[in-house]
Amino acid sequence: LIIFPDADLDRAADIAVMANFFSSGQVCTNGTRVFIHRSQQARFEAKVLERVQRIRLGDPQDENTNFGPLVSFPHMESVLGYIESGKAQKARLLCGGER
């Protein structure tokens, strides 16, 4: 996803969240990269974080759930490992990160 300085940041945040969290983030076309002008980065991060914090985890058959389980326990361990690796490399974790 490429976001230019004159972009509608609300719409861009909606698209980024859908691209990354659709199907519990387990699709090969998952939108894991966002390129944004530095002047918009903080505002965009705040808008994405606001949306991500509203995601409801749970049973995928419950209509109130936005994010279901990962495909397997080993996959969950891999995802948690990626998070730990990022933290070890001084990445900023904005939300979640634990089971």
From TrEMBL:
GO MF entries: oxidoreductase activity, acting on the aldehyde or oxo group of donors, NAD or NADP as acceptor
Keyword Iron-sulfur: no
Keywords: Oxidoreductase
Keyword check for Oxidoreductase: yes
PROSITE patterns per the UniProt record, alphabetical: ALDEHYDE_DEHYDR_CYS
Domain Aldehyde dehydrogenase: 1-98
Protein name per the record: Aldehyde dehydrogenase family protein
Source organism (scientific name): Pseudomonas aeruginosa
